[in-house]
Amino acid sequence: MEGCNEAAVPVLLKLKLTEEKKAQVVDGTLYKQIVGSLRFLCTSRPDLSFGVGLISRFMHDPRTPHMAAAKHILRYLKSTTDWGIFFPKADEQNEVVLEAFSDSDWCGDKVERRSTYGYLFRYLDALISWCSKKYKVVALSSCEAEYIAASEVVCQSLWLEVVLEELKLDYKKLVQLNIDNKSAINLSKNPTLHGRSKHIEMKFHFLRDQVSRGKLTLLYCHTEEQTTDVFTKPLKQARFDKLRKHIGMSSLEFLD
Question: Is-contact 106 145, C-beta < 8 A?
Fold first, then answer.
């Protein structure tokens, strides 16, 4: 792949991978080696998280479309070898707050009809935690998908608070969680919406409990400002470039 053409995005827009049973079988060992190597890179390259998670779903029976998607990520890596997470110098004017963003792509998986959720945490405008993962359950609506994603964020939030306290770092105690779905926000605050939420597993109502206890606040953010879209779905190049900068990634060329 050293002489391959470069790619501007890790995942092509509107790419929907399935099991592709009619396609030609590829070398399973090579495919797993590629996925494993890309998994390692995800620890420092959050822009790869969605794409790598997508191709990881087909390691049991990789076909030519899956290998093509994996090679496309490698082509993207070739064009972004000097990109990485940038941790800006602390600014006294910035409010010391633990800020989170949460989003989901309802029924994005065409095999099991499960949703993909993503979240990120920023501390002093620096990215410190992120995730892109497929649900273990099937959501019946976009509201339910967003609600479950927010519940996962709460668990990560509590863990990060403990870490910050152990490091003796000060921050505004009320964690801010940004969601682009008003129905999910209302569901977390209003227990009377029982008819729309009675089928949701009890563990996901942990979000409602934490909101009522004043542990975090849910804020509505417009879809265009939803940074975690980069973790849940393929995007156009212009929007991908914008969100890549929003999550705190920069090129060494720009920093010189």
Answer: yes
